[in-house]
Amino acid sequence: MRTQVGIVGAGPAGLLLSHLLALRGIDSVVVETRSRAYCEARQRAGVLECGSVQVLREAGLAARLDRQGLEHGGIYLQFGGKRRHIDFRDLTGGGTVTVYAQTEVVKDLIAARVAAGGAIEFEIGDTEVSAITSDRPVLRYTSPDGTRHEVECDAIVGCDGFHGICRDAIPAGARTVWEAGYPYAWLGILADVAPSTDELIYCHHPAGFALHSLRSPRVSRLYLQVAPDEDIAKWPDDRIWDELQRRFALPGWELTEGPVLEKGITPMRSFVSSPMRYGRLFLAGDAAHIVPPTGAKGLNLALADVTVLAGALTSLLAGGRSELADAYSDACLERVWRATHFSWWMTTMLHATPGAGPMESQLQLSQLRYVTSSRAAATSLAENYVGYRPVAMPG
Ligand code: FAD
Ligand code: DHB
User: Fold this and answer.
1) Hey, whose CA ends up nearest to atom 37 of ligand 1?
2) Which ligand 2 atom lies nearest to the CA of residue 215?
3) What is the pLDDT of residues 2-34, one digit of tens each?
4) Taking the complete model, does pTM exceed 0.90, yes or no?
5) Which residues line ligand 2 (CB under 6 A)?
6) Could you report the per-residue pLDDT of 162-210, keeping only the tens digit for each?
7) Catalytic residues
8) Nearest CA residue ID for atom 38, ligand 1
């Protein structure tokens, strides 16, 4: 088999890349270990920056997003018994974010690829990439019927997430990795109940962080800070709601409870691997970098990487010019480091570090009072949240 771009992973990065390349006349093959149903149901992120919405719109992928996405012009920060609003529209000259679940982004992308006759192979195994320093790298995999395939490509893109195989195909001596862990995790629930709030609430509490998000006017998404090794079996629904009630409590406001549809625990990590390109192997999204979820950057970074990469690969493969491909890694890493800092800053401002003592909490409260009272500080949070330097769609 032969294709121009072999793409490993059918998450948001791999799927959007394959669509953007097809729009520019570049063919690709996407291979994915999981089933289509699994990819479409995996609960993850929920907030799109305005630049991400713009990219999806310009690529003709936003029909359902424009109908069902919920535009939000701010967030609430809750701390010390107060809830303060950060007004993104006012602070950033009209900037907003859109609440639209990653599950829906993935469904829309898969539907668009299938409708266009794009090649996506689900439930494959034994993915291998080789000859990545040549201009004919090879992608090998085994399809569900046991057939081994070999695809000769012009370039291979690892969109295979943090646990994928592509990053490790770059020799250890040719890359640098930065990594930091956090002494907590998030327990997330999806609940069949109308959100109790009009905007997301990020809540600082001595017992730990809590976040009230949503998926639709009838479905809520809520998160609680828990221990990194927390056992989900120890969190029956009643205990989760009791803890959410305790952390969000505010006189005159009520958190409405409902049936829990799904629950899970997400570990937290900051991770950056550089460079994001080695020969004809490119990395995009979680394969190259991970941020803790506070600030909702992971999905947006993945979409931004492949938007830049689609232009670079088109220029390389259709135009024979390597400048954009050569600039890809540095161009993306600048945005990645901004989001890595912002996510770390939001995380450490809002979570209770086990054993940290009362000094940490006073410093966090001071920072929270500052970002909710100084226009300069609030603007910094707002411009990072809606997306600092929104990515432009390459020509
Ligand atoms: P992924 O979505 O991870 O896609 C990678 C794909 O590659 C997967 O489908 C995987 O099955 C496939 N794959 C892996 N190995 C192979 C292989 N060897 N061969 C073929 N295919 C392979 N971000 C936020 O902004 N907010 C959140 O609340 C949030 N919650 C999250 C919760 C969890 C549990 C996780 C893991 C992430 C969360 N994120 C969140 C991060 C966000 O979801 C990711 O940044 C985003 O999914 C990145 O997209 P991606 O396409 O790069 O990677
Ligand atoms: C959601 C996740 C986040 O990490 C965040 O900061 C805001 C919202 C969500 O899943 O809705």
Assistant:
1) 44
2) 11
3) 999 999 999 999 999 999 999 999 999 999 999
4) yes
5) 45-47, 200, 213, 221, 293-296
6) 999 999 999 999 999 999 999 999 999 999 999 999 999 999 999 999 9
7) 72, 202, 293, 297, 385
8) 44
Using H for helix, E for strand and C for coil, what is the string for the chain? CECCEEEECCCHHHHHHHHHHHHCCCCEEEECCCCHHHHHHCCCCCEEEHHHHHHHHHCCCCHHHHHHCEEECEEEEEECCEEEEEEHHHHHCCCCEEECCHHHHHHHHHHHHHHCCCEEECCCEEEEEECCCCCCCEEEEECCCCCEEEEECCEEEECCCCCCCCHHHCCHHHCEEEEEECCCEEEEEEECCCCCCCCCEEECCCCCCEEEEEEECCEEEEEEEECCCCCHHHCCHHHHHHHHHHHHCCCCCCCCCCCEEEEEEECCEEEEEECCEECCEEECHHHCEECCCCCCCHHHHHHHHHHHHHHHHHHHHCCCCCHHHHHHHHHHHHHHHHHHHHHHHHHHHHCCCCCCCHHHHHHHHHHHHHHCCCHHHHHHHHHHHHCCCCCCCCC
Taking CA atoms only, the protein residue closest to ligand 2 atom 1 is 46
Predicted confidence at residue 392, as pLDDT, reads 64
Ligand 1: which of 20, 44, 211, 308 to mutate, judged by most atoms within 8 Å of the beta carbon?
Answer: 44
pLDDT tens digits, 240-287: 999 999 999 999 999 999 999 999 999 999 999 999 999 999 999 999
